[in-house]
Design goal:
This protein is an alpha+beta fold. The chain has four helices and six strands. Strands 2-1-6-5-4-3 form a six-stranded mixed sheet. The longest helix is centred in the first third of the chain and has 17 residues. The protein starts with a helix and ends in a 6-residue tail after the last strand. It holds the Pfam family SnoaL_2. This is Nuclear transport factor 2 family protein.
């Protein structure tokens, strides 16, 4: 993985989220994706904070977009690793979030969101 790929991915990812287009967002994710976030635990009541599979991720994000219609992300930074990238952004309430995404075969196979003092509304 290189920084050019990471920047291009992050720009597409950000545009997808800011358009609230779930199909566009999910094109980057593997069918067997696993994703964890404290917001998953908050919205679903599942203390594991983890969803398994693209359709479960779709359902979780659809709920989030419904509950947070003003959702908007602002890119702060993008970093790369061997098979992963980190997107650092601010959400609609100014909270800092880092999204760590691990890739397999060009798609996100696992990831997690890490939040500062504020989650989402």
């Amino acid at each position: 993985m290189d920084l050019e790929f990471a920047r291009t991915f992050a720009a597409e990812w950000l545009d997808g989220w800011n358009s609230h287009d779930l199909d566009r967002i999910l094109t980057h994710y593997h069918d067997d994706v696993t994703f964890s976030s404290p917001v998953i635990a908050q919205l679903t009541g599942d203390v594991s904070g983890t969803v398994h599979g693209k359709e479960a991720l779709r359902a979780y994000w659809a709920t989030g977009l419904e509950r947070i219609p003003e959702l908007k992300f602002e890119l702060v930074d993008v970093r790369v690793s061997v098979h992963a990238l980190v997107i650092d952004y601010r959400n609609q309430i100014g909270g800092r979030v880092s999204e760590v995404l691990i890739f397999r075969d060009g798609l996100v196979i696992s990831g997690f969101g890490a939040y500062g003092e504020t989650l989402a509304n």
